[in-house]
Amino acid sequence: MGTISRGMASKVMSEPLHDESETRLIRAATAGDPEAFGRLVLMYQDRLVNSLFHLLGNQAEAEDVAQEAFVLAFLKLATFRGQSQFYTWLFRIARNLSVSRFRKARKTASLDAVESGGSQLLLSDEPAPDRQLLVEEAGTRVREALARLSEEHRAILILRELDELDYDAIAAALELPVGTVRSRLHRARLQLKAELEALETVTGSGTREKRTS
Question: What is the domain extent for residue 61?
């Protein structure tokens, strides 16, 4: 992470975080206590970077955007009203920064394929036999399929399946009605499933061709 993460967090690295009250930290940080914000950085930086990594498909980009998001969050902390979880508010800032970067990058190159180890994105909220199969095969195919989704579908899957946010929190993060979250998540899962099936078809055809050649 960048200077704000290291600088604000360096003084509190050895202190426990599990008993920390997020509300108290936000109040103290808003009052001008940089160490309080440093604790918030420590609480959420790994989670945010991981989510951005899946969104952007690049570790360095994820760290850069997270860095920018924390700086911007620090500057805008007085505007946080507590109407959503702090992480939800923070992710919204980071996602807006990501969208801006993505749009600039698309002018010269397509989004890199997502390279992640946490590709356990699931197609259903209900237990199913193929869920375990998806997890086992997740590696390459899910990463490729995820990279083919639109940014809005990729973001909503990340929030639901990786961050495990509920519908209300996702709605707050993406600034959408809860009903839209439900319908968009459903479409995102269908799109991911279709992309996986398409990749399976291509892979299967290639395998058959090799066997007959």
Answer: 1-112
> Which tokens in the block code for residue 116?
């992640």
Q: How far is CA 93 from CA 55, 85, 200, in A?
A: 14, 13, 36
Per-residue pLDDT tens, the chain, 213 aa: give them: 554 545 544 444 334 444 458 888 988 988 888 899 999 999 999 999 988 888 887 889 999 999 999 999 999 998 888 778 899 999 999 998 988 776 665 554 444 444 444 444 444 444 444 444 444 555 567 767 877 888 889 889 888 887 888 999 999 888 899 999 999 999 999 998 898 888 877 666 554 454 455
- Spatial distance between the Cα atoms of 113 and 145, rounded to a whole number of angstroms: 9
Which strand (E) or helix (H) includes residue 112?
none
Claim to verify: residue 192 and residue 138 sit in the same structural domain: yes
78, containing H or E segment: none
Same domain for 51 and 120?
Answer: no
Identify which of 67, 66, 42 has the alpha carbon closest to the alpha carbon of residue 54.
Answer: 66
- Extract the tokens encoding 72: 């911007």
Domain boundary among 70, 95, 112: 112
Output the domain CATH number for residue 133: 1.10.10.10
Q: How many domains does the chain have?
A: 2
